[in-house]
Amino acid sequence: QSVLAQPPSVSGAPGQRVTISCTGSSSNIGAGYHVHWYQQLPGTAPKLLIYGNTNRPSGVPDRFSGSKSGTSASLAISGLQAEDEADYYCQSYDSSLSGYVFGTGTEVTVL
Amino acid sequence: QVQLQESGPGLVKPSETLSLTCTVSSGSISGYYWSWMRQPPGKGLEWIGYVHYGGSTSYNPSLKSRVTISVDTSKNHFSLRLGSVTAADTAVYYCARDHEQSSSSWYRAQSWFDPWGQGTLVTVSS
Question: How far is Cα A35 from Cα A40, in angstroms, rounded to an integer?
Answer without folding.
Answer: 17
